[in-house]
Design goal:
Length: 178
């Protein structure tokens, strides 16, 4: 009885943190102020750390919170404050809004189809191999963790490049005025 409750509690917590990560990630798209986007990203990363903890990879969960939330997001907030991002008069959405929404719908459809196929098969069928969260997390942490970490290095390079572009643009504006 207690094991069934813990299994249900784990599932509920996984759904709660997954839903929180999804809502916070979606709010990053619609938020207008850069600091609110950064706070939504922090909430997303903390939720992902909690999901890693629920999956039993506590080392990765600790690094998710300590490195990504603690260090990377402090760096991102520092960059936002350094750039003094203000509300622009430019239109809120670009011309890529509709292709982006179409791509999101296709991605969501592919995700739902893959989840549907991974559901346990009926009792009568045999020979199918089903994959669950545990097998996914083992495969991810054994085979793909380096790719995941290299993405963070790429994001750091993008921030440095953005700072360089802004510095050049400010220097050109100063030269044009003078």
């Amino acid at each position: 009885m207690i094991n069934a409750f813990l299994l249900n509690l784990d599932t509920l917590l996984l759904l709660l943190f997954g839903g929180t990560a999804l809502v916070a990630a979606a709010s990053m798209i619609v938020a207008r102020q850069p600091m609110r986007v950064a706070l939504a990203l922090i909430i997303t990363m903390v939720s992902l750390g909690a999901i890693y903890g629920l999956l039993g990879v506590h080392f990765i969960a600790a690094f998710q919170v300590l490195i990504y939330v603690g260090a990377v997001m402090v760096f991102m907030v520092f960059v936002i404050m350094l750039l003094e991002a203000r509300e622009a008069d430019a239109p809120r959405y670009s011309a890529w809004r509709w292709p982006g929404l179409l791509g999101f719908a296709l991605l969501l459809g592919a995700l739902l189809i893959s989840i549907w196929r991974a559901l346990p098969s009926p009792v009568g069928e045999t020979g199918q191999q089903n994959y669950g969260i545990a097998s996914f997390s083992v495969t991810f942490l054994q085979d793909y963790w380096l790719h995941f970490e290299l993405t963070s290095v790429l994001l750091l390079a993008v921030v440095v490049a953005a700072l360089a572009v802004i510095k050049v643009s400010r220097a050109q504006r100063g030269a044009d005025r003078g």
